[in-house]
Every structure is written in C-alpha cells, then in structure tokens.
## 1
Amino acid sequence: MKPGTTETSTQTEQEAAIYPSRLRYEAPRTLDEATALLAEGGGDAKVLAGGQSLVPMLKLRFASPEMLVDINEIPDLGYHVRDTDGTIRVGALCRHADLERSTLLAQHQPTMMAAAPVVADPIVRNRGTLVGSLCHADPQGDWASVMLALDASVVAYGPQGRRSIPIRDLVSGPFQNTLAYDEIAVEAVVPPPQGIATGGYLKLERRVGDFATAGVAVAIDRVGDRVVRAGIGLTGVGGSTIAADDAAAVLVNGPLSAEKIGEAADLAAAAAQPHTDHRGSSDFKRQLVRVFTRRLLTGLTTSGEEAA
Amino acid sequence: MTALDEIKIGGLGTSRRRVEDNRFVRGKGSYLDDITLPGMLHMEILRSPLAHARINSIDTSKAWAMPGVRLVLTGETMAARNLAWMPTLSYDTQAVLATDKVRFQGQEVACVIADDPYIAKDACQAIVVDYEPLPVVVNPTRSLAQGAPVIRDDKENQPDNVIYDWEVGDKEGTDRAFAEADVVSEIEMHYPRSHPSPIECCGSVADFDRSTSKLTVYLTTQAPHIIRAAVALVAELPEHMIRIVAPDIGGGFGNKVPVYPGYVAAILASILLERPVKWIEDRTGNLISTGFARDVYLKGQLALRRDGKILGVRMNTLADHGAFFSDAQPSKFKIGLMHSAFACYDIPTAHLQARGVYTNKAPGGVAYRCSFRVTEAMFFQERMVQAAADDLGMDQAEFRRRNFVRDDDFPHRTPFGFLTDSGQYAKCLDVGLEAIGYESFLQEKEEAAKRGRLLGIGISTMTEPLGAGNSREYDILGIKMFDSAELRIHMTGKALLRTGAKSQGQGHETTWAQIVAHELGIPAEDVVVEEGDTDTAPFGMGTYASRSTPVAGAAVAMVSRKIKAKARKIAAHLLEISEEDVEWELGRFYVRSQPDRGVTIQECAAAAYSNMPDGMEPGLENVAYYDPPNLTWPFACYIATVEVDPETGVWDVMRVVAVDDCGVRINPMIVEGQIMGGLTEAYAMANMQFITFDEEGNCIGANFTDYLLPTAWETPGFELHEVVTPCPHHPIGAKGIGECAAVGGPAAFVNAVMDALKGSGVRNIDMPVFPDRVYQALQTGQDVSGAPPVRAEA
Amino acid sequence: MTSLYEEISPTPADEVPVREVTITVNGERRSARVEPRLLLVHLLRQGFKLTGTHIGCETTNCGACTVLFDGTPIKSCTMLAVQADGHEVMTVEGLAGPSELHAIQEGFKEEHGLQCGFCTPGMMLTSKALLEENPHPTEDEIRWAISGNLCRCTGYQNIVKAVMWAAEKLDDGKGSESEVTT
C-alpha cells in the first residue's frame, strides 16, 4: 500500500455500514513510541488524532488499516501559540474548537479566525484537529485553503527527526499526503505576517456541516495601504485545494483598488477547476469563487479584518 | 359542589405538559434498538450496488464459514418457502430478497444473522454476488419511451413500465371551460423525491417461541394492526398467534407504515432459528430503500376569466413509483387524494389525468408527512395559483380572495367530488396578511429593488382532507379505515385508555387523556394511555395522514360518551331519581331540582363494581369503533418572505407567518409543536432535501452528507396564529393538524423565491431551490428542472 | 462482576484483539473488555445498557449519539470505546440528580422541546455544556451551539425556548447543577 494513502475497501460507495473492520489499536505515550509503531505497521497503520474524518471512513469501510496509532494520549500537543516574531504554531492535538474560541487568533490571524467556526459542526469541532484535517487532504477541507493562503508549512516527526513540509508539498492528490508511513505531522506553522495581517474566509455550505460547494480563503499582509503579501486558497473546486497564485500576484505592491480586486476575482475563478455535480455546475462554482474573492477583498478595503 | 374547572383537570384547550416526556428526558424511552431479548441474534442486509442487473449466482459459503454466523438467507432460500415476494399495500408484489434481478440500487439481496452486528457485517462482505448489469432507467419519461427496459418482467401482463392510468373529474366540462377562457395559465414542475428520514431508522425484533407457537414482533410501525394483518398474509401464520408491539418510535412521518423486506426476513430467521432476531437498518439502508415520498411530475393548467375567476382546472400527473408499487393508498385512489387539490376555491369544473410508472429506484411515494399525495396536490395547486395570478397581472392575495369558497357556501362540493364542510378562508388570509405586514412589505420590496436587492413574498393557502376515511370510499387492502378506543374506568375512578393509533411523537399519551377529561371530568392525570400492542389495543389503522385526532380521537370521545351514558344510569340509581331528572356538569351528575345533591363520576365508578342497579351488568368499561362520516378539512395560510442574493443564488428567509385553522385544539402547545415541525420540513423540502440519481441509477442522497436536513442554524423562526372553525361532524370539533404545515408550507417558500425573481421571466424552479438553480435561472431566464438523472462531470 | 459470579460468555477466538478499558460513566467507574473496533456508542448502549444515547446515522451528522467526554460534547459514534479508557463520560442518564431533574430536562418538558424524544438526550447534553460555558446565551448562540444535533420533529424553536428556560432557572439559583450520581 502506498505510504500515506488510504486503502479503499472493495465495497462500492453504497455499501455503508456502522461497523469498522477488525483492527489493532495502540495508544502510545510519546512521539517516539508512536513512530516506532507506524514503522512496525509497514504502511498498514494510520494515525488517529481527532478521528472525525478517519473513524467515519473506518465505519464505512473506506479505510481498513491493520493498526490504529492513537496519539491523543501524547502530552503537550494541544497547543496553539504565537511566537515573539509573530509565527503561529498549532499543535497536532489542537482542536478546531480551541481555534474557534481563540483570543490569539481573534487578535492576530483573521483568516484562520474566519474559518474556524465554519469547519464541520460544533460537536465535531470539539475533537477534530487542524493538523489532522491537513493530513487528511480532503479537497473540500477548509483548513487547507487557509494554510495555502498563509503559505504555511507542516512539521513532520519521524525516526529520522523533524522536517518541515511546505503546505504545497504536503498533498499529492485527493486524500493523499506525502508523509512517510512512519512520520507523524506534529505541528502546523504559519509564518509571521509581513506587516498587518488581514483576511477572511467565505464558503457556501447549504447547511452547517455540509461540505463546501466552494470556498475562498484570502490572506493579505499590508504595510499602511500597500499590500506586501497576498495569498488566495480555493476549497472544493478541484481535485485538491487550489492556490490561486495569479490572482494573489495581482494584488501585491499597491493598495487594494476596485480594479485589482475585480481582476483578482476573475483570475481566482479561472484558477478553479470545479466539476459539475449535484452541488452545482462548474460555472456556478466558478461564479462563487469570483464573488467570494471579490467580497472578501472588498471587505478589507473598508473596515477590513485588521489585526495589530 | 360545582363543576370542575376544565383547565385544572387538563381538559380540552389546556397546554398540558406531556406525560411521555418523563421518560424521554431521562433517556428511559424504549425504542426498538433498546430492546434486548435473551439469546437475541443480529441481522444485517446485503444490498445491491447496481440499479438494474441480473443475478447469475450468489456464493454465501465464506459467510457461512465465519465464526458467529448462524444463518444466511438469499432469495433462493426465501423462494423455497414462498417468501421471496410479498404483496404490497397497493396490490402489487415486492421482492423480499432478490431472486432473478435487482431492480434498484440498495435492493435487498441477502441477509446474515449472527451473534453480533459487527460479525454480521463482516459476513455480508464475504458474500460474493455475480451481477450482470442491465440498462437502467431513472426518469419516468424515459421509462415510458419506446425501447425502455421492462423493469417488472417478473409480472405477467406487464409489457411496459406503466402501472396505472387513472382519471377523475369532468373532462368534457373542463374542455368547454378552457375553450371559453380569456386566459389559460400553464405551468410544469416536478415535486422531487424526498425522504421522511426520522432520526430513528426502521427495525424489528422478531421472536418466535416454539413452545407457544406465538410470534412476537417488536417493530417500528405507525400501524401495528396493519402489520399483523400483513404478516398473517405473508407468513401464513394464524393471526391470533401473532403479536405486533410498536415500542416508542423515534419519528415516523410515514416512513414507518410500509412492510419492509427486513421485517419479513427477520421473522423467517426467528422461526428457523427459534431465537429472537433483531434487524435495525443503518441510515443508508433507510434512505436508499425505505418508503420515500413524492416524485411526481405535473403539467397544470387553469382556465381564467379576465376578472380573476378560475373557470376550470386541468392536471396531468406522472408519478414515479420506483421498482415496486408499494404505496399505502386507499385502494380506490391510485394517485391518492391528488384530486383534493383546489378544494378551497370555488371552481365549477376540473379534470385530473394520472399515470404511474416503474423505474429503477426504491419503491414508495406516499410517505412523509402527507396524507395520500395531498402534499403534492396542495403544492401544485398553490404554484398554479401563483402563476395564474402573475399571468393575469393580479395581486396574489386578491386573486385568492376572489376565488375562495365563501364562509356561507358550506357544505361545498369541490369540482373533483369532495365535500368540504366548514371554513373561514378569507379570514385566515387576512390574519396572515396583517401579521406579515403585506402592504408595507410590498413597499419595502420595491425600495430594495432600486438598490439591486431581490425580496420576495410567497403565499400558500389550502384546505386539505384529513382523517381518512369513511368506509364507503376508503380502505387499504380492503380493510376499512375506522379507528378505535377502549376505555376502562377502575373502581377508584382512575382509567386506562387504549386506542388503535400509534404516536411517534404526537403526544397521544397526553392528548387522549385530555379528551377523556373533557368528556367525563376525570382529571387527565388519572387516565393512562397505551398504544401499539396488538394483543391489547383495539383494532385500528394507525397514525399517519394526520388521521389520529379525526378518527382515533373521535373514538376516544365516543367511548367516553358510552361510559357516560352508563354512568348516568348508575347516578340515577345512586340518587334514587329517574334518569330524566339527572343533569350533568363536568365531573358530576346532579338532581335537576336540587343541584347540591349529586354524585361524582368517581362515585359512579365505584358503584359500578359494588352497587349496581338491578339488572345492570357490572363494570364501567367500553370500546368504540369510529367510522368517520367524512374527512375533516383544516385550512391554513402560510406566508414567507425571503431575500435572494442575485450573485450566489442563496436565499434567506426573513419571516414565516402561519395561520392554522384546525378546528378545536385539544392541546395548543402540542398543536403548535406540530405546526413548527411541519414548517421545518416544508422549509427543508423547499431548500435542501434532495434524493436524485445519476445515469447509472446510483442514488445520490443516501446518507446525511448528501441528503441535507436543516439544523437549528438554517431553520427560520415561525410566527403562529390561529383561527378556529370547529368541524361540524367531529365529536369534539377537531380537524387534525399533524401534516398541514408540511403540506401547505413548501409552496409558501417557493412562491416567495419565485416572487423575488419575478422580473427575470422565470416561472418555475423545481425544489429544492438550490443556489445553483437560482443562479442558473437568473443567467438564462429559463425555468430550471430538477428531474433526474443528475448531470455530473468526471 | 458481582461478588458471586462472572458470566461466562463465548470466549473470543484467539486472533480477536481484546483490550480492557475503564471508563468513568456518570460518575461510576466501569470496566469492560472490548475489541478495539467497537464504537463508544455501542459500548454505552449494549455493554453498559445505557440506552438513552441513540444512533441515527453513520456519517457523524445527526448528533443523536452525543455524550459529554470530559465535559465536552462529542459524537460517541465517532469515537472508539478504547479511546475513552481513563476518561469521563456523561450520558443522559447522568443528567438528573438523585431527587430532581436537571434544569435542562425540566426546561425541555416545560417548553415542549421534544416530540418523539429520539434526538433529545444529545440535544440536552449539548445544551448543558453550552450553559456551562455561556450561562446567558442569545437565541443565535443557542442555535449555533446545537447546529450539530438534528431534530425532525420540533423545528428547533421550542428547543431554543427550553434552553433559555433552563438558563433562567440555573441563574435563579433555584435549580442546582446536578450532582453526578454515585
């Protein structure tokens, strides 16, 4: 089995169940124990953190790993902090709910602040983790586009020690990440803003907990009026989360004008690669990308999501 | 002594707090999956992944070999016992386990019975089925086309996919009306497939006891006696040796009326293994295979006079029943009560043509908080009315007002032959318009339009037939649709009441006691109510189609009156006067000429056991079977205001006003709860609930990730108002309310959205009115249909 | 086990992995030997016979299985029983005090916040946790907090009223936070 992938059961999608297949379970107390178990698993083991994506897959038998390595009993992974230089680090067991209630994010990271409350539903948020969500690599996951917009990275811990994986290199396809099978993602790292961090997140979900029909994450760093860095991430409009680099590039070096915003919105829509499905036509999804990008950026020109 | 205060004893009109809640809030409800019997085994169903395929072979050997597996059933094993097929409630047949073919995705193919459900599921996965795919059809128009695959080739004399053709009304008279019309308004639409989806899925525990030859089946059913009759027919067991027990039910909404293959298989397994067998489906099984609702196409026309008078109605409907015709319908009406449409309007003539067709989808069509297709009827009606008013350039409220049956026009014969008996339609509309602030909203809408904002208001008014039904016209499988109540007054004046209905949340344990309190003056808390056990409950046809209060509730009143008549004789005996001199006030009989001299109902009860008049049978117990003389006709006016975001197609509800006239309200709190629940389902259907299929017959919407139920966050708030026009023929003047809001509500929301889009030239967007459909409508100026198969790109 | 006997049930085959877990459920330490794949909700319902926690779906949407895990609402169908080892779980059966109902339970009765009762245990536990974090929630805050619990019967409006009723009662001090039964 390819490392980092999920083995798909032989059942068709409609063969749903509520009963996982037989498996072995371990709950190590240290990271080294955990990676040793993953190594022992030889690629047939999966890390269990929040479990809000993995356990449903076990129940539907979309995933039937031989072993689960539960990292919830490893201490000191539930943090999210801001270093003195402005770097924000989110530990592997930091729950969506922690981020939703975070005064730190409210003060310093508006894009993440906007996304946290709309991930899944409030009860799922009590267990699900940001880091886990990034590793799960669902194209309709919210955090991935936020992290893309913020140019974040993920720290992987393995028998060879730690390494930093830029968010763009973490995902290799839908539900596929590039971690080695004996590595655990222990932290997400958001680099310090180059100026004042502004931004937001908008998505169309038809009800709380629905997967996004389309979503846009926008992160703009400003010095005074001038945009010095911009990032735009798109949710649910492609085989994986999309970085709308051309759209972001248009915004840099100058103030956010209506013209630039319009251009960025069009470029973001063009960067989207949506499929027509029961959530809507590809045209419609592109339209959502265009509208959300425009509305987010316009919102930043007036009051804005300013952060000290 | 004086009469009791009816409010204090929990009589009619009191918002008595619910008896059921005492166990539910403690988590002590006893739902089907809570039942565990000694030696109980667990059954899981293997379902077909394909929508239409021949079964070449089924290899169950690996499943049999797994430790903990006790029995594996296939269509072949069922067929050997003549159980592979069973009759449906509509005189068709339905496969219990597939034999020759599978005809819809999710169809039951095999069952594994094992020590626990995990093992049963493991074993299901080990069964190997060799399928040969066949061409699939999921759209009824294609199902009717030349060359479409014949789905029911198991039936003799079934050369195509047509199930029935049916018509009602006056074709010639209607044609004449249309010829004379100044304007003909026409509209086409699809009421999409939807699913009741109560939070509790369906299930049963079958327990055959060889030592007594008795079969006891605990079952999530809204109609235990119908199940007993069906099991007697299907399993060929003597009816007196079958006991059906419906425990607490976590929501029904019609989903728990039909007889499902899982029940039959579990019963057979229990008989073969002589151990209890539990089958509880998972949510996918529930959504993909159990009784769905709606899926009807309409072409509707109204013949109009220029001053706004409707001269005639034409309806042409096409109903998609899936692979088996298993609706629970009164047998005389193939399309149920679709022809109750337009009952609240004074229209001289109408004609309905209806056709039913098979497709490769799950069977059903009637469930979901709608009595017999009445939801479709009223939705089509109010969408047609909206279109007609627009076509005439007339105000929506005014158009309705001009056509309503007037208060003094009752009894009124509708153009389709129903007899409505009472109503104050214009008043309800006026109450609604006042509450929503109609005139000022229209102004607000105009102002908003200048700034590019799209506001809309939607009205839906309707009277619908509840309480099926009188024995002349209504039966299911030949069984007439009466209902029953048995009342026993004990010697201390406490009482036990049992009915043939079955609450799934409607609060019968609370409300039936209120009727007894009203009739007999026995405090409601002194009356315990039981339902659901066919060994003890009098025969009834169950709770669906909002028929409980109209029929079973009436039976409760009638049996109370029988008891009162006997108690009056006892009172006369106790007071030593003749019966003519006995008067009644709530709770006591007294001497007319000496009001201070009297006996309480409790004293009469005691006397029934200890001091009877000469020649009178002891005891104070009785039973009543109520055959309703007619349907009841509640009326409602629902009004919704919305704002549509033209850039994203998202629409938000601003306000919802509901004016309900359901006659006398037994328990206002419970009535309002029913209305709000119904409005939420109406909103859900209009906004997000969707089951559809792709070209291969894959069901999209077979889990809660795709089939969307609204949460507290999306669900709007509701402003409730009431008008009371008692039902003239119901013993306590009540009409029933359970389904009204689900029936009348969807059109209010859809009409509101369409009103917001009025300038665009779009006349119809099929439900659910998804943002992408609104967007598409605004872009193209064309109507948007939601009929399957759904388009998808790889 | 009682002091008298331990029921001999069919011994699992050798290759079935089994672990012993100890969970404090409604204040009482309870132990069980379970397969790792057993869901927490199944252990609660079938193992510990606490059937007040319900199952309504298999995609972690409906919330009928909600329990409090170390005081926080979680969907017990999306946690393995083994993960609860050493932790505290409160189910609906643990809400009421020895002699009286929790204010939440009273509020649901008073305001007709339930009809069929199936979603109610989860709904009440989520509400209890909400009121502990936010004793005076607005209507919007209540609707947001319970947006992971689906209800088909009530339309939510009375549930909101029930929670507000409970908030007021807890505020008055007349209602006491229930002591977890021992």
Note: The CA atoms of residues 223 and 328 of chain B lie 11 Å apart.
## 2
Amino acid sequence: MRPNATTAPWSLAASSAPAMPTTMTDEALVEASLAGATDAFDELVTRHRRAVYCVCYRFVNNHEDAADLTQDTFVRAWKARATFRGQARFSTWVHRIAVNVSLNQVSLKTPRGEAVDFDTMADTREPAPGHSLVVAERQAMVRAAVAALPPRQRAALILRTYHELSHQEVAALVGTSVGAVKANVFHALANLRKRLGPSL
Amino acid sequence: MTPCLGPDQFIDVLDGSAEDTAAAHVAECAVCQATLAEVRLTLAAAAEAEVPEPSPLFWSQVNARVRGALGGTTQHGATGWWAWLRFDVIVPLAGMALIVAALTSAVGRVPTDRSTGRSAARPGGEGAKAPVVTATAGEPASGDGALELMLDLAATLPGSEWDTFGLAALPDLGVVAQSLSPDEQHALAVLLQAAVDRPQS
C-alpha cells in the first residue's frame, strides 16, 4: 500500500525523485531545501540524526523523550533554515537547536530516565576489565545520575563534558556567567560523586 | 598558604587554565588534592558513559517522523482531495483512461465468455505486452465493476496498440491498480465508469 497521503510531498521526493547526492555539502543541501527540495532536508536529517539524538538523550536519559526531542529539533531546523547563514557549520547550528530544545524540556519536567536504584545497583564486585556487562551497568548508573542533577548543573556538565563546548559557549547557551558555569560543573561532579559513591 | 580553591578554580585546574597561585596551593594542600582527585575521577567516569545505541530501525523512523511532522508545513504540503494527484498516480491513471477511451468504441466487438462474463479474447502475437495485464486482470484490486471491466478491456488490447498508445513502458496495470489506496481506487473507478457510460458517437 502507498504511504499515507498526508506525507505526499515527502513521499514523492522519497520514492520518485533521485536521492540527493551524498557528495553535496551541508550548506548546499540547506540551499536546496530553501528552494523547496524536501529530499535535501531529508539528507540533512540522515546525516545529523545520530548526533542530535545523542545530545537529546544526554539531557533526558530515555529513548522515548530523546526521539521526540530529535524530531522537534529537526522540525525547528526546517522552520528556521532560512536563518542559517553558513557562518557556522550546519552541524554546530543544528546542535545548538538540539541543546535549546533539550534545555526547554529539562526546565519543563523531570526526565523519566532509566530506572536505576543506586542502593541496589551499586557494583560491589571485583572490577573485571573488559567485561561489557559491568561497564554497561556502570554507564547506566552514571547516565541516570547525570539525568537526576538539577537542570543547570546537568546542562553545564553535559555541554562541557560531552559536547566539548567552551565555558563561554555554555554560558551563552544557558544564559548565565562563565563563573556560574564552572561552579555548576564542579557541583555537578560533586553531586555525581555522592550519588555514585563506591561504584566509581 | 593561600585559601583553599573555590568551585570554579577546581574546574580551571582540571582544564589546565588555573592561575599559578591556585596550582601552587593544590601542590601544598592535602584537602584540595583529595577534592581534585575525586572530581577528576568522577569526570572520567562521566565522560565514558556513552549513549546506548537505539535499534537500527530507529534511524529511518527519525526521517519518517520528521517528514510526518513537516507534512503540513512544507511549501508543497497540500492536503485534501488533491493530495493524491501525484505524478506516480497520475501517469497510471492517465494510461488507464487512455485505454478505456480507445477501447470503449470497440467494446461491442469483444467476444465474451458467457459463463464468466469475462473477455474471451486474449492478446497474442509477437511483441504483445497485454499478457502481462491478463496475469493479474482476473483479480482487480477494488472489486469495482468499472475497474474489472477496464482490466478485461485492457486484456484485449493487441500488443501493437500498446506501443501505439505509448503504454509499453507503463508498469503492469493490475499491479498498479492493486497499489492504489482505497480513495485512489474509488476515484479511478469513477473515472472509468464515466468513460464507459459516455454515449458512443
């Protein structure tokens, strides 16, 4: 059966028109999408969906919310694509949108997160280097602990640690001072230490 | 000895951007050394916590979800009755209408099998394309009489006429009909019925 008619403009691009050449730059794809080539934007989504999803997941720590935020990020990017001037890379631009979307989400509600009981999940076994299960459990605990941080601490830690933004960039995104960002990162790490305790 | 480091100074030390006085203090202060070690250990643990990989199917869902969300915002985002008037629908429809227009005048000459009501004629000869149609013409997609009639009529079209009407490159009409949505099938049936009902000149 044919795809849903409500997706007709896109399904035409996806099924009938040739796919956008993968050699096109992001900037060229943005230009093409501005000219109405929706398949060009589809290619941009394909290129950056993983990075955007990772940004969002860091903030909410669960797949469902991260998927919703990823969709929201690209929808906003589509609507705002005319404002993309090419002064920054598209990846940086869409990354900032993802951060803003996630920050809005973080300020609205406490993330559902992965269900982790810190008391019962503390790893008391002898470390087994290379054991994937142990590593996965520890990583899940860390992610849950990060997601449980107060919003500003969480945002500062995520942006500084996982996305390697400068303190100045983080301050601009979060809307605070550089000193406050550094303090938030420090307190975030201190809180993580308390939560994770001996499992570190 | 200088005062112990504040939160932002610990981060500066971690980043390697601390003032000399701060670094000198840490070198002498056991408390700050312990704090710095804990912060560094925690930061390392946080840094290695990777995002779990979602299902491989998820990535294509991202594109589909974005497409769906943008369905009403794209400049071509037409919705409503004309939404199905797409190139990949219009071409088969036009082809089918052309067949009907060409054959309705000759329908009276087509011998039929009275036991089934279906056309007894079957195309033959070299280069005939019509057998492709007859392979699926017996099971029209909609069950609508007009569509069934059109498929039967198409089955009678000699191969040479397929080329004459430029239909040789079209896909199997039966397959096309089955690929249409119910709304599209209904629209096609209405179109065909109107063509069949048109008085012959």
Note: Chain B has ten helices and no strands.
